[in-house]
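Encode chain A's predicted structure.
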Amino acid sequence: MIIKGRGYCCSKSGVKVSKPTIDDQKRYRKLDTGTGCLACIYFNADKEGKNWEVTKFVEEHNHPLASENDKHLLRSQRSISNAQASLLKNMTGVGIRTTDAYNFLVDEVGGVENVGFSKTDAYNFVQRERKALIDSGDAMSLSNILRERQSEDNMFSYDIQTDEMNRLISFFWIDGRSKIDYDCFGDVIIFDTTYRLNKYNLACAPFIAVNHHMQNIFVGGAFIATETIESFCWVFETFLRFVGGKQPITIFTDQDQAMAVSIERVFSNTRHRLCQWHISKKAPSKVPAFNHDRCIRSLFYNCMSKCESEVEFENSWSDMIRRGNLGENRWLQDLFKVRMKWSTAFNKERLDLGILSTQRSESANNVLHGCSKGTSSLVECYLGLDKLTSSWRRSEHDEDFRCKHGSVTLKYSDCLLLKKVSKIYTRKCYSLFEQSFMDGVVGVCIVEESRLTDERILYVLQHSDIANNVKQWFVSFHPTNYDADCSCRGFQTRGILCKHILRVYNHKNVTQLPEKYILRRFTVLAKKDVYRFKTASQDDFDSNLVFRSHLMRFTYDLTRRVEDCKIAREYVLSAMNDIAKKSDEILEHDEKVKNGLFPDNQTDKGNVRDPPAMRRKGRSNNRPKSHWEKPTQRKSKKQCFQIVFLLTITNIRFLFLLENRKESKGVDQKVENVNISPKEYDFMGNLSLDRNSAGGDTIPCPNLNNEVSADDIHLKFSAIPDVFKW
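Encoded structure for chain A:
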């Protein structure tokens, strides 16, 4: 294309032509800058397109020109450079508000006149970038991102659930790193669905575990539309399918009945625990006696986490009911029925790492709250959770580095037991062990020692403080192999030896922990040599499934470790070629070659449609308020309506147009036509709508299609012709 001419005119050229409207009420009216200025300049090129000449030039303007200090406000002088665009994207991408990012740029260049664009331009740019993420539709864009991640990571798995109209209602994903983490630390899982900050009102349901540094790790995530039994069953079954069928030992959730039923169906071998924090927050409002009787409140908290046995729990619970006369309290009755899910007295044989609530998952929700808003798309929510996962993994890598290149400072450098343990555990786990050791040596004393059997000794221990000498613990100790068992069951629940056993060890001068009391998940080698294959005892399908799942994880982890070393890469490739040749020779002589039964990562759903946009129904993402915190009452906003009367010549016909100004959206709804006796009038007026108005000239308003009732709404007239008063 050859350009033959070009022209430039003043930005104030032309005059805005306003369209006639009926009482036009708009929330925002665009500024009219046109003054009909004729200043312009036009160029034309010759036939060859080489020489240009000015054909028209009007120099004079009919308005004052912008000053030097105001030129940055002109649209022709505003533009966002690539560096500024990149900075805005990065800052808003990590949760910084657009206005704060713009103010940062203003401070960097020394004022708004030097930044080169306005705050509105910054908002428009960020909005365009958000729309570009979902250019092909929100659900389809998310599906494309998940498919791209799967092509980059062979162990990345995801699945999408759609309804009969092929609209997305749930999706689940897990990457290769999460699968390895789950193999190492998937014994205790926190599952929470309290976060719903997106325009489709989908619940974010992350699977959170705890690593060997006692940090949060992400081992899978899902978004679900409805919190029903079917939805939770789909999420849990998909999770198990992608992790090779390995069930956690303990899972913590909130008090959701649908979730409880789903866990019983899918996680049949998992102990379901309820969040004690949610229970303690509900207690003051459900049991008023907790607010004024300290003894009853103390007994309740003892039942939650301080009872050493089921018998002690029953006695404390009965005492609480008797003191407060709470036998008829329905909430306590229902809570007692599920006592095995929330009281630690009934969970002494299951590992829980000392966790009592879902606060770890809710801390993730708080972080994610800064990455998304109520209008966020699915892609933005997924990317926000992915960034959170990356930050957690960076923290784990940093802690791995500190453990590898540093040593812990011991409180007692002469203790051989602490010296050896400090080289085995991570820094955080060692600090927990050391604190338990110190509590045992300083805070617990041995009051009795007796021979239990020919090989075992029974020790009776209690607090060193005379005021706390009510409770006693019993430790059975084998002096030959150092096997010990405590009545508190601290090792069985926390995974680290309790202070009572360590007090006995110190008493018997034990300098080496038995290997059975060092869980690999707490050591610095927790993620090394994880995959040791043994002959499976499951049926044929399960053995193939477990073998393929573990072999994929093993090769994935090995690839990540050697990818930065050329010599190691060459050695691994050579060894794998030798393994492949040897395997082919074996398979040629094996008539029972079986096909892999490992399920596919994801079934193609075709063109996935966006889920229906949902309005949040009162559920807040804020922290649940306690009994003592007063809820903030919303101030009622006065609703302003507009009613327009259109009268014909032969028949007076009222056409009511209802406009709700509360949201300032100006959406008109046709309501109802009312026929009046024939008159000849031309009238158009505005009336105000008043609920339960008293006084003045009023008439009943016709039915307004369930928006407002005809019984409590009247039309209040101010100054109208007498013909309208009847």
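Confidence is low (pLDDT under 50) at residues 532-543, 591-600, 617-621, 635-726.
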